[in-house]
Amino acid sequence: MKQLEVQIMGQSYLLGCPDGGDARLLDAVERVDTAMCKIREGGKVRARDRIAVLAALNLAFDLSDQGKPQAQPAAAAGPSLPGEPSEKLGALLARLDDALNRDDRLL
Q1: Beta strand 2-8 pairing with 11-17
Q2: Half-sphere exposure (Cβ direction) of 105: Cα atoms closer than 13 Å
Q3: In angstroms, what is the C-alpha Rg of the chain?
Q4: What is the pLDDT of residues 35-70, one digit of tens each?
Q5: Fewer CB in 10 Å around end: N or C, the chain?
Q6: Long-range contact pairs involving 87-96 (C-beta distance under 8 Å, separation at least 24)
Q7: Domain edges within the chain
Q8: pLDDT tens for residues 9-44?
């Protein structure tokens, strides 16, 4: 196993990587860095731990949708109905953001 030094949101991390897994790890680092920077640049969340939690939720949500077949493009489907995943995710993210802002700490 080799170690790679990477940067995520300007901070260095030394990560273990199985032989031959460099490209996959670097791709994952790029996705996480992009997701975290996008949230930070939104301006509402500043704490690194909160940004990490929201980025993880967004990435997990995206992954859960990859295995599901899409009947029609989202634009053709029209507005989402109450209770659909996009509305539920928005409500969940709002609740998480509110709870984290009130508590001012993750744990």
Answers
A1: antiparallel
A2: 1
A3: 17
A4: 999 999 998 888 999 999 999 999 998 888 776 665
A5: C
A6: 89/61, 92/57, 93/54, 93/57, 96/53, 96/54, 96/57
A7: 2-65+82-103
A8: 999 999 999 999 999 999 999 999 999 999 999 988
